[in-house]
Specification:
alpha+beta, 5-stranded antiparallel sheet, 5 helices
């Protein structure tokens, strides 16, 4: 990735990963404040199971495989380390996906309850259009 692109993506609040079908991360950028990866590229070569608990990693890997099989975007919500996250997985080629993790804990704390979920279990985010636009770019 060019230095210009890296400089633009690095401060993003969302953790963005490129993950292979076997669950190995081949790229990461952004999301520094989440405490999962401090530096871009830090997670390259790392398995999802080395980053998250077995249950979360298993769920994320299932989303990767489902996305690659159906070629459709998947959007889910989960809790990890007492924080709420939305994860969106989109196919990128035949054996990789783009995975974007967003901390939605602020949405939870503002309402004092769990984030609102749509009929598919996806988080309803107040500014969802901006999230969708960034992911589609």
């Amino acid at each position: 990735m060019s230095e210009i692109n890296q400089g633009i993506l690095e401060p993003l609040p969302d953790l963005t990963l490129v993950v292979r079908s076997d669950g190995v991360i081949v790229g990461n950028v952004g999301g520094r404040h989440l405490g999962i990866a401090e530096e871009p590229g830090e997670l390259i070569g790392t398995s999802l199971r080395e980053v998250w608990t077995d249950d979360i990693a298993g769920h994320l890997h299932l989303l990767v495989r489902r996305t690659l099989r159906t070629r459709m975007e998947v959007d889910r919500h989960y809790t990890y380390r007492d924080r709420s996250y939305e994860v969106r997985v989109k196919p990128q080629g035949v054996d990789r996906v783009l995975m974007v993790l967003r901390d939605v804990s602020k949405e939870t704390s503002r309402t004092g309850s769990q984030p609102m979920l749509d009929e598919h279990g996806s988080t309803v985010i107040e500014h969802r259009a901006a999230f969708d636009k960034r992911l589609a770019a």
